[in-house]
Amino acid sequence: MRDYGTAYDVFVHQLYRIDGITSPRTIVDLGANVGYATLYFALRYPEAKIYAFEPHPEHFEQVRQLISLNRFETRVTAMNAPSARHRLCYTCPTRVRARR
User: Fold this and answer.
1) Which pairs with CB-CB distance under 8 Å and at least 24 residues apart come from 69-74?
2) Residue 76: which pLDDT band, with cuts at 50, 70 and 90?
3) Per-domain residue ranges for the chain?
4) Which terminus of the chain has fewer CB atoms gathered within 10 Å of its CB, N or C?
C-alpha cells in the first residue's frame, strides 16, 4: 500500500465526502483498488454495511488487510470480483426497483 497520493486525496482532501448523506445503510465500492475509499467509508459511516469488490488479486489482498487491521470484518465484506469479462449481479436488500 504505497499509493500515498491516493491516500492523501481520500483522507486529507476527502475526495469521497458527499455532503447531505449522513447515515447510509449500505455502501458498495466497485473497484476498491487497495481499499482506501472502503476504509474512508467505514470510518465516516460507522453504521453502514460495506461491500468492496476488487478483481486484482494483489489489490484484493491489500483490501482484506486494511479491513483486518482496522477490525471492520463484521461490517465490511471484501470480494475478489471477476474482471470486466464477467458479469457481476448484486441484489439490493431494500425495496429498490429498476426501471427500463
Assistant:
1) 70/39, 70/42, 70/43, 72/39, 72/42
2) very high
3) 4-79
4) C
pLDDT in tens, 22-46: 899 999 999 999 999 999 999 999 9
pTM attached to this predicted model = 0.79
Dist. CA 32–CA 53, nearest whole Å: 6
Give the strand pairing for 49-53 and 76-79: parallel
Retrieve residue 30's grid coordinates.
Answer: 466497485
Strands (E), 1-100: 26-30, 49-53, 76-79
d(CA 95, CA 11): 32
CATH class, domain 4-79, is alpha beta
